[in-house]
């Protein structure tokens, strides 16, 4: 439903146990055992349980009074109830909601706002509700609107009066696969491209490790995001806090947050930390999409650089010869979905006045969808990487085309004292001669090279050919054999990979 408190009409408000911000904040918080019920959050497990549980969509049964319905003479219409419910998608947060409620109950008892007996009843009731949800026995009711109200109402049905006190002062592995793949393809040279045109020869290991570096920065962005989202909104109430002597530091500490959020209005009204998280996911998706695009191209007959195994390929219902790299096509396609999740929330947040607005009910689905989708993209990319073979013979036959050693020849001239712009022109004219003769630079004899500049000597042939060209790279981070070997060794150690088996 809403964040920490939703204003339904003038003079009437409803406060809810745990906000979407709490869900995301808790999902990225460290699990700590300061109180007995601390536990890790597993979205995937919750999702599986949701499939087992069922939602009662019947609108014909007598409607129960809303927990917030004290000042209302009439209930909402079926259409309004259907339009405003969020239980269909936010029930995935049940573990976070229950954990937050347990922390809150413990804090209330510690502060003397409820009795120890009430606290124990609440904790036992919440344990039973969680057991029922896990077992698929819990009935989610749309007339109870959302995950928070479903759990609170069920707790009230179960233990009675103590449940009503609970609401006091509240308002609502791809890197490993790529490094392993790189380790298996030592010494394999492939064409390096710019503008999708042949540029310079590079080691395949160097290319694969480029994606590893990008994924490492992606992980760093998520950790950076956590620094800003790991603050607890619980206790902010509607927007102004509460006059009751609650202890926000206790609940924050129990749930593994860094501290409570300092400003109650900020706590209920902003979703910048969600935007940052979705932005980080979008960048991951873009990197995976680029990997997918490259491998889809390389799997084509036009390139033929790699062959996916049957286990990660699909066929055609009409063309019997087809073997399609569908998983990576979908990785490429689903990146649009991840970016769409970010854009939808950006547009949602752009015009909202302080503090909470019901629009923010729409913040959860983009987060859930982004998390589910990016996890799937990462998993299938790793699976694909483990089931492809690079076609050495096809790659080696393709290497001569494009004069990949041209820049290395220019470097040779620079080392001989020729200004780079002059050497660039000389090599350009040398390539033109090769095109006219349908040959490679290494096929030109010394007299032909000297016709462009007398500085050429016999040692020039140590710079020509893709193998020689790769050997000449020596700068830090380059595609030179020693540099790439050092990069690979670093990543094998960092990811704790067995070089022989590829296992961690």
Automatic annotation (TrEMBL):
The keyword NAD does not apply. Residues 178-340 form the Fumarate lyase N-terminal domain. InterPro entries: Arg_succ_lyase_C, Argininosuccinate_lyase, Fumarase/histidase_N, Fumarate_lyase_CS, Fumarate_lyase_fam, Fumarate_lyase_N, L-Aspartase-like. GO terms for biological process: L-arginine biosynthetic process via ornithine. It catalyses: 2-(N(omega)-L-arginino)succinate = fumarate + L-arginine. Keywords: Amino-acid biosynthesis, Arginine biosynthesis, Lyase. Pfam families: ASL_C2, Lyase_1. GO terms for cellular component: cytosol. One of its GO terms (molecular function) is argininosuccinate lyase activity. Pathway: Amino-acid biosynthesis; L-arginine biosynthesis; L-arginine from L-ornithine and carbamoyl phosphate: step 3/3. Its EC number is 4.3.2.1. Residues 404-471 form the Argininosuccinate lyase C-terminal domain. Belongs to the lyase 1 family. Argininosuccinate lyase subfamily. This is argininosuccinate lyase.
